[in-house]
Specification:
about 425 residues, alpha+beta, Porin, 60s Ribosomal Protein L30, Chain: A, 5 helices, about 15% helix, rod-shaped
């Protein structure tokens, strides 16, 4: 019954030790430590009975070699009157010195509270004057680990003399404590190596791996999923930057064609009058002569006369302003008639009407140096003589032409005839 209880207690101690293992201790290997113990030595070797027991003490150094093997260096001081039978009494010592070097094989590593161990070593003592006697300590022990802050050792050794003529077999019992000189860090397993880097293939070397490249064999930017940007209209401006991707146009206009608002063939970017048609030679602006002619379409004459009607005043004002703005430009006022009537009459009437318009413009501040007037009668009339009057009205007009160079010198004010005698309605 007692044996079963002892076995159960031992099992509980081992289980308790295992609970604390790997969690409350510095390391599974013992750190260097120094300790002190109280000892009892029985030189009668009367096991299992105990004979005369002598007290003593020890100072020791204990250190781990591996997780399961330690070594210790021990000095024992023994207060004893022990003397080997048959030895010289005069050499007897009351205080005896011993030194031991031992190995300790532990059942568990040092990250457990309770740890049984076996001991084997070599020792020597001076039990008589000038005599050193060696012996071999063999034994068992129990170690209590106080969470790496300290240790308690309970030991029992059976010590065999190397020379039994000088020393009897004896038993040695010890209870001691030890304090670590330092802390041994628990070994930390190195982190696992990082997973191998898998380098994905990039066939077209555009920086987009094939698994993410919509065009794996044609290089293109990351923003377009590895595909080249398209240029639908082929104008050299990529669709991503082209405001008109389906119409070719220059890069300066964001890939759009330049507009020509007034349809005069001069693009708005070069057209100084983008809302008024005009020739390229005049930067896309209408020629002043054409504008003045347009204004003069609202100039009317009294019946069969060269007298300008009152309602023509605004048209003349506008025409005068346009001519004055065109400083340095010369204008010829050309009077025209329809085909009805004699050539001579029509020619004179056309000259008089042209002269009347020129005089009216000069009164409105136009320089006489800019103006000449001529009449050409029916020379440029396009409507037939027998056509209705409202149709022939299109040929009865004064137009303006811009003249420069030597041609200007052909026109003289003296060419304008005197007032013609009315002959027919015009």
């Amino acid at each position: 019954m007692i044996n079963k209880q002892l076995k159960l207690a031992a099992l509980l101690l081992l289980c308790t030790s295992a609970v604390f293992a790997q969690s409350k201790f510095d390391s599974p290997k013992k750190a260097p430590q120094i300790g002190f113990s109280g000892n009892l030595t029985d030189f009668s070797a009367s096991l299992p009975k105990i004979g005369k027991v002598d007290p003593g003490f020890s100072v020791f150094f204990w250190n781990g070699i591996t997780n399961h093997l330690d070594y210790s260096l021990r000095y024992n001081g023994l207060f004893s009157d022990y003397q080997k039978a048959g030895t010289d009494v005069t050499r007897y010592l009351d205080y005896k010195n011993e030194a031991e070097l031992s190995l300790h094989l532990k059942a568990l590593s040092d990250d457990h509270i309770i740890n049984p161990f076996l001991t084997a070593g070599i020792g020597a003592g001076n039990y008589a004057k000038k005599t050193i006697t060696p012996y071999a300590p063999l034994g068992i022990g129990l170690q209590f680990n106080l969470l790496s802050e300290g240790y308690i050792y309970l030991q029992g050794n059976y010590r065999l003399p190397i020379d039994d003529k000088k020393l009897d077999k004896n038993t040695f019992f010890s209870l001691g404590v030890a304090q670590p000189l330092g802390r041994r860090k628990k070994a930390v397993a190195p982190p696992p190596p990082p997973p191998p880097v898998v380098v994905e293939k990039d066939t077209d070397n555009d920086g987009v791996v094939d698994s993410q490249d919509a065009c794996p064999t044609v290089a293109g930017p990351v923003e377009n999923k590895g595909c080249p940007w398209p240029d639908t209209d082929g104008d050299g401006v990529l669709d991503k930057d082209d405001a008109c991707p389906n119409q070719a146009g220059p890069a300066e206009n964001k890939g759009c064609p330049w507009p020509d608002t007034d349809g005069d063939g001069v693009l708005d970017k070069d057209d100084k009058c983008p809302n008024e048609a005009g020739p390229a030679s005049n930067n896309g602006c209408p020629v002043a002569a054409e504008v003045v002619t347009k204004k003069l379409e609202s100039v009317f004459f009294d019946f069969n006369k060269a007298t300008i009607t009152a309602e023509s005043s605004q048209a003349l004002d506008d025409a005068a302003e346009i001519i004055k703005a065109a400083s340095g430009e010369n204008f010829v006022l050309v009077g025209m008639t329809d085909k009805k009537g004699s050539d001579t009459y029509n020619l004179n009437l056309s000259r008089q009407r042209a002269k009347a318009v020129m005089d009216a413009l000069e009164k409105r501040g136009v320089s006489s140096e800019q103006l000449k007037s001529i009449g050409i009668g029916e020379q440029e009339a396009t409507v037939a003589e027998d056509a209705p009057d409202e149709e022939r009205q299109a040929d009865r007009k004064v137009v303006v032409r811009s003249i420069s160079g030597d041609e200007w010198n052909v026109y003289k004010k003296s060419d304008v005839p005197k007032k013609a005698t009315p002959k027919k309605k015009k």
